[in-house]
Design a protein that fits this description.
single chain, alpha/beta, Aminopeptidase, Aminopeptidase i, Domain 2, 2 domains, 5-stranded mixed sheet, 10 helices
Length: 426
């Protein structure tokens, strides 16, 4: 077994901090790709050989071809998602209640609501503004602690000790950001932040984010604590693996697909259920003058790793986990299996992942949900059905999934990154 490198975990921290939204995560990835010689093909009518990427909002596809690649070359793809459960600002967000100014929010995905209470929250996202040339997208980020969702004092909730905390999404999760006289309306805030006229603010996708920086924590620095482990961790490791594969060309074409909206089902133009990956592959096949038979051979020689967080066995809730499939932090990548196809792993793709772990010198774990509990899902099944390519589901173990601040092992990113590199190059 190879000894993992904590430098990999350390390299992730600034990337988490730079990426409070899916749109910022894509910009973080683009900066790394461009530094490695990748060029933007988003405005091109055809994908071209070489190091290229395409992006749209919170989604990005990148690939690297070499002169040895041809029409029958298979693909080695790592898929992940840029979004995480959180709060999203409503279109008409300005609320007033009992002397407070508040911002109305929708709950995005399966957020652990209590984890957003009593935190210092900033604001970030994208705004569409009016310009002389037409609507333009502007990213913004405010790192000031301007929002907060205060919890009700225990003295005013007689039932909390007996029945636990119960939160209503509409009434209890509305952040405060000032007194009635002390806070502007949201549209005016955006106009001032972006330094544009009030009437030039057309629309927004905006979201609060936890301001606590990502950190390596624990008595022996064993863990990473940060927002958005699920699933920016897999996104950043996928980019690292793609760059390494581009520098060491193999017989198959390395590619990554980072998608938005996985936490709400992937059914959007930038989600995994959209034909983003398949359209890029089809455009590359045009460049290779690929015949239908050659395309079929390429698909049979292709593999997708759906990279997403895996549930570690929780020490305080061990009974919620499958007893013969205990999962631990810092014990290596987790292969995720579900007979009902909530994960896309099958016996063939499981074997491929095990061989990649062996080649990388990484330990490996296998996760199965308790039979009497509902299993979550990933982009894996949708990708397998859409593309007709073999898929496996795997990721790093973590605790507090869907919390405002999650936790994973500090050694596991190096293990999983090495396995992804082997999967891409092999």
């Amino acid at each position: 077994m190879n000894q993992p490198d904590l430098a990999v975990a350390s390299s992730l921290l600034p990337r988490f901090d730079a990426s409070p939204t899916p749109y910022h995560a894509v910009q973080t990835v683009i900066a790394q790709l461009e530094a490695a010689g990748f060029t933007d093909a988003s405005e091109s009518s055809a994908a071209v050989p070489g190091r290229q990427f395409w992006h749209d909002g919170g989604a990005l596809v990148a690939w690297a071809t070499s002169p040895e690649h041809c029409a029958t070359s298979g693909y080695r793809i790592v898929g992940a998602h840029t979004d995480s459960p959180n709060l999203r600002i409503k279109p008409n967000p300005d609320n007033r209640s009992s002397g407070w100014k508040q911002l109305g929010v929708e709950i995005y995905g399966g957020a652990l609501l209590n984890s957003w209470l009593d935190r210092d929250l900033g604001l970030a996202g994208r705004v569409v503004v009016r310009t002389a040339a037409g609507p333009a997208v502007r990213l913004f980020r405010d790192d000031r602690p301007i929002l907060r969702v205060p919890q009700l004092a225990i003295h005013l909730d007689d039932e909390i000790s007996d029945t636990g905390l119960k939160l209503n999404k509409q009434g209890h999760m509305v952040p405060v950001w000032g007194g009635i006289a002390g806070a502007v309306d949201f549209r005016s805030y955006l106009a001032a932040t972006l330094e544009v006229a009030l009437d030039d603010i057309l629309s927004w996708d905006a979201m609060p984010f936890d301001l606590t920086p990502a950190a390596i924590v624990g008595l022996n620095e064993e863990f990473i604590a940060t927002a958005r482990v699920d699933n920016q961790l897999s996104c950043f490791l996928a980019v690292d693996a793609l760059i390494a594969a581009a520098d060491t060309p193999g017989p198959r074409i390395p590619m990554i697909g980072l998608f938005d909206h996985e936490e709400v089902g992937s059914g959007s133009s930038t989600g995994a259920a959209a034909p983003l990956l398949s359209s890029v592959i089809e455009r590359l096949q045009v460049r290779f003058d690929t015949t239908p038979e050659q395309a079929a051979r390429s698909r049979r020689d292709s593999l997708v790793v759906s990279a997403d967080g895996a549930h570690a066995t929780h020490p305080n809730y061990a009974d919620r986990h499958e007893p013969e499939h205990q999962i631990h932090l810092n014990a290596g990548p987790v292969l995720k299996i579900n007979a009902n196809q909530r994960y896309a792993t099958n016996a063939l793709t499981a074997a491929a992942f095990q061989l990649a772990c062996e080649a990388a010198g990484a330990p490996m774990q296998r996760f199965v949900t308790r039979t009497d509990l509902r299993c979550g899902s990933t982009i894996g099944p949708a990708t397998a059905a859409l593309m007709g390519i073999a898929v496996l589901d795997a990721g790093c173990a973590q605790l507090a999934m869907h919390s405002a601040r999650e936790m994973c092992g500090a050694l596991d990113p190096a293990y999983f990154g090495a396995v992804l590199r082997e999967a891409m190059i092999g």
